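To illustrate the input format used throughout this study, we show a single complete record. The first block contains the structure-token representation of the backbone; no residue identities are included at this stage. The design step must infer an amino acid for every position from geometry alone.
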């Protein structure tokens, strides 16, 4: 998956949800002041520019690949003229499937990031039909299965990826999460610490810190949990799940005002994102006398 394209798709989906909410008569639209409208306008302008740049870069890459194809044809003609006939070279169908798979991978990641797990799974399974053995697609599928609570299926997917590429950091980070959810704390910490030490993939390292914080929270080691959640937020301030989990850590270590401040930060960072909404809902619940759940 092209990370830049995935980010553009994620931003597009987020903005589309915001605008749909504002346009739907059946749903009371959130109050949007002039400053918020201007921010949305600038986000759309920025997204258009980024998308335009991505299209131009993709076209330039496509033209370069066409040039390579022409060069290859020339080499083939020259070679065929001087050598006996041999079996035909592989067709381009595999490459077409790979290009099709990348579209479904990006769609799967976009759906996953928005919490739309069923559609994410559908897109990623389609990607694997088009590109069997794709580490990227199978890692994202394992991630989706993990969040669906299908831990055995996730374990199978992630171990398959690591069997092909033991250095795949994102698969290992998610494997650590799965083993924690299966009650294997020591193995979970080992897998996640391996990702943190290697620091070879920014996203994997970010989530490894988040998951380590969740493991230590589960073990009631709140100082360590806070340390890893804060490290995750330093690496990815937009990882709103980090604010949610940091707030839970504070709450259950009897630091209620800091917990409220953490959830407020998450809610204000992006009130339309899934984790921003969860932070806001939890704040509202506590205001009405509720409390966060200890278990996920």
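Output of the design step:
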């Amino acid at each position: 998956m092209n990370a830049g394209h995935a980010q553009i798709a994620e931003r597009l989906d987020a903005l589309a949800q915001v605008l749909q909410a504002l346009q739907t008569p059946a749903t009371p639209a959130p109050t949007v002041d002039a400053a918020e409208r201007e921010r949305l306008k600038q986000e759309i302008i920025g997204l258009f520019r980024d998308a335009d740049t991505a299209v131009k870069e993709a076209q330039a890459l496509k033209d370069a690949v066409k040039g390579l194809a022409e060069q290859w044809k020339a080499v083939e003609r020259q070679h065929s003229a001087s050598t006996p006939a041999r079996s035909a070279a592989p067709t381009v169908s595999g490459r077409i499937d790979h290009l099709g798979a990348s579209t479904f991978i990006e769609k799967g990641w976009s759906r996953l990031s928005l919490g739309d797990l069923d559609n994410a799974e559908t897109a990623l399974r389609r990607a694997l039909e088009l590109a069997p053995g794709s580490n990227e697609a199978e890692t994202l599928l394992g991630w989706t299965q993990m969040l669906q609570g299908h831990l055995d299926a996730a374990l199978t997917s992630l171990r398959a990826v690591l069997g092909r590429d033991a250095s795949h950091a994102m698969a290992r980070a998610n494997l650590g999460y799965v083993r924690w959810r299966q009650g294997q704390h020591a193995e979970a910490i080992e897998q996640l610490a391996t990702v943190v030490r290697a620091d070879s993939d920014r996203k994997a390292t970010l989530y490894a810190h988040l998951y380590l914080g969740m493991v230590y929270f589960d073990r009631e080691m709140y100082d360590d949990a806070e340390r890893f959640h804060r490290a995750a937020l330093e690496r990815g301030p937009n990882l709103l799940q980090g604010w949610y989990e940091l707030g839970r850590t504070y709450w259950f270590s009897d630091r209620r005002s800091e917990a409220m401040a953490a959830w407020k930060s998450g809610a204000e960072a992006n009130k339309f994102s899934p984790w921003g909404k969860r932070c806001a809902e939890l704040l509202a619940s506590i205001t009405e006398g509720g409390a966060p759940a200890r278990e996920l």
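Structural context for interpreting the output: The radius of gyration is 23 Å. The chain has 13 helices and no strands.
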